[in-house]
Specification:
Elements: H1 2-19, H2 23-43, H3 60-79, H4 89-92, H5 98-118, E1 127-130, E2 134-137, H6 138-162
Antiparallel strand pairs: 1-2
Length: 173
């Protein structure tokens, strides 16, 4: 009986260790996303940062400032790291200067990468409330954030094509 209990405990512990997210893998993906986003920002001419496909849509710069606001919000909630910017502050700035927007967006990715690097992987399975409404694990909040930034970067492909520029090639790996 003792042997069976020991075996069961070992299997349970092994399963838990395998199921835990490796923060190094998360960091690697966020670093790739940062580099890919930088390629998008670099590819758009400075004169087109204010481009809007329709008047109701965000500008190219607005897409990336919105993406950055969300990174700060999601990552701060998921990792307990205090965001250096207020919620929605970047997008509300209406900044359309290429150098300034690029710096703000890269700073958001740096915030995410640094916060994830130092956050204990064992705590990623804890539940948090995101934006005061949604209960999810810290890991899922980071995943939702990653999905959100991918979505908005993808939308920017249309803006780049409308500006007459070829968007960056896929950077999946």
């Amino acid at each position: 009986m003792k042997y069976i209990l020991t075996l069961f405990a070992t299997l349970l512990l092994t399963t838990q260790l395998i199921a835990q997210t490796n923060t190094a893998d998360l960091v690697k993906e966020w670093e790739r996303a940062k580099a890919y986003t930088k390629e998008y920002l670099d590819s758009m001419p400075a004169s087109s940062y204010g481009l809007k496909p329709t008047k109701e849509m965000r500008s190219f710069a607005g897409q990336f400032l919105h993406l950055s606001d969300a990174i700060y919000g999601f990552v701060a909630a998921a990792t307990e790291e205090k965001s250096p910017v207020g919620f929605g502050e970047l997008e509300k700035s209406n900044d359309e200067n290429k150098a300034s927007v690029t710096a703000k967006v890269m700073a958001a990715y740096d915030f995410a990468i640094a916060a994830i690097k130092k956050y204990p992987a064992a705590k990623l399975s804890e539940t948090v409330k995101i934006f005061g409404r949604f209960d999810m694990t810290r890991e899922l909040a980071l995943s939702k954030c990653f999905e959100h930034q991918t979505h908005h970067r993808g939308q920017a492909t249309v803006y780049i094509r409308l500006a007459g520029v070829k968007p960056p090639a896929e950077k999946l790996f």
